[in-house]
Amino acid sequence: MQNKFGDMLKKLIQFTNIKLNVIAYHIGYDISYISKWANNTSQPTKKHIERINDTLSSIFAEEIIHKDYAYLFLKEFNIHEPLPTKDIQRFLHTQINNLLNNAYYCSHENFSHSQSNNDIILNSTTIVGRTNIYEFFCHKLAPIINKITPKLEIFITMDILTLLQQKKFFSFLDCCNLTDRQIDIHIGCNLSTLANSDEKLIYSLYKFLNKYFYVNFYIYEDKFFNNSNIFLVKNAFAIQYSLHLDKSIDICTFINNEKIINEIQKRISDTFFNSPIILQPKKEIILNSFHPFFYLNKNFTIFITNGFEFFLPKKSYLKMIDLCKQQNLTDETIASLKNLQIMWEEQFEKNPISFILPELNLMDYIQKGKVIFGDLKYQTTPQEREEQLSYLIQSMYKNPLIDIYLMSQQENVNDINYYKLSYYSNQKIAYFKKNKYLLNKYHLPIYFLKNSLLIQKFDMLFSKFKQTNFVHKYTAEKIENLYLANKSLLHRIMESQYHT
């Protein structure tokens, strides 16, 4: 067994024959750092090791699958678990991640970090060429950004939809610590670009917000600052850039003069905050005033990733209300729960509503039964989940306008493409809701869509979901037959997880 991180890393590199520049590209470090790690002359910092190991595991697992080395890998690294028949890449990712983490924490060498990325101090400079600029952002700026605590605030005057088409611009975020501090990014959106965008680009925006789940994005209409060409990290540095014809950054100047930064900061922040905001993160929904207003509309599209918190049996609501009282939650939360129960019974028995659920998220709920409502976190029992499925089937028979769509997983499951961002729309009002079980105090769980065009675009996106060949519509009869055929299996799955 390897007892040093460098030894394990070198063995994986040699086994897969991956070039160091490929690894460097994906994890955002210079090749010289990878070489030092593999030779045990340096070591990643503990602060970033989880992200680095997760990325390394993805790279190595993908290469092993590509070369059909899976069985050889088990033998070479003395792993005695059998190779699964499904999702082999995820299995390999887990095994490699365990090897790297164990090797890292078993290492007993004391490494000096005096020359590490955290100690980089940059002087004002100009960078020319998009490749050099990309490397500058990932290798020079990201380490500086990682030193800023407890709150990081970034202003970017460029159109977010244009940047998403550039692919590489936001790669610097992959090199940043996103989880244990507040990160607010203020960025522009060109409404003309939004109006002309297709479903593919809007889906890229959804996946972007989903991927950088721990960042609070504030998106503004950019008409007052779209020619400013500024990237500003508050109280730290500014970058002024020029654009090529294809809208990629061609030349940029890094500025760290405190007086100049303060001047830029004042002008840019004032311009942003006086611009119409089209997507706004919030700490919470004002339940008692918002929910009745939202649910009194007549047509709904709901994309659910946080657990299927609808069609709960009456006794579940009563238990949730008791739990609110035990936890001394507000009267507003209790009143809103009661209102929601009534609205489900009255409104949704006759109004059209479309639920879209990713298979993996639905399976996650069947196993864990976690419901989030305001500040309340509630885990349903297996019996309640069975009653909920029965209630859903009865409601669908009663109201044929209720549609259930189930999305099969098309991509390998990892933290990037696992759906964590739910969408709720009544065609006039819309919001995204993050899974609160994954958040901490730094992360705002709600995105309100404040622009009718943006709502229209996301409504169209999720409507298009229903027409793709990897989304299947389930009638009440089909759900009932599926439920009855698998009732015993589902019950065992729910019971095993509930008692874990």
UniProtKB/TrEMBL annotation:
Protein origin, superkingdom: Bacteria
InterPro entries reported for this sequence: Cro/C1-type_HTH (IPR001387), Lambda_DNA-bd_dom_sf (IPR010982)
Protein name listed in UniProt: HTH cro/C1-type domain-containing protein
